[in-house]
Amino acid sequence: MTDSYSEKFIVKEQDCISEINSELPSVLGTYILVKWMETVSARLINKQIDTQKQMTMGKRVDIEHNGMAKLGEEVIIEATIVEQSKREILFNVVAMLGEKEIARATHTRVVISKKAVAKMMGK
What we know:
single chain; Thiol Ester Dehydrase, Chain A; alpha+beta; 20% helix
């Protein structure tokens, strides 16, 4: 069982808060950090579930964003499973800029059958 997984991201223009308002600086937006944290967590758990029959959906993210990453900088996101039941997985997720932590979060994902999702979507 893989308990942690990390991935590197380069801050691009579309990841910066300046995309919301050009008067804002070209630094990584919290909403993008949440996206990256969910992505890395999902990729970690996808290694453990039957992705032919199951998928996960985000349920909750509690984030503390305390540092900046500028346009062009590399951010490493690492997700670690801290608790797992049949349906829910709790992750600790950290965003690093070099040796400096710029954000940390807890994230909960729910395992759901693809058939149930298809039914909800009217397929």
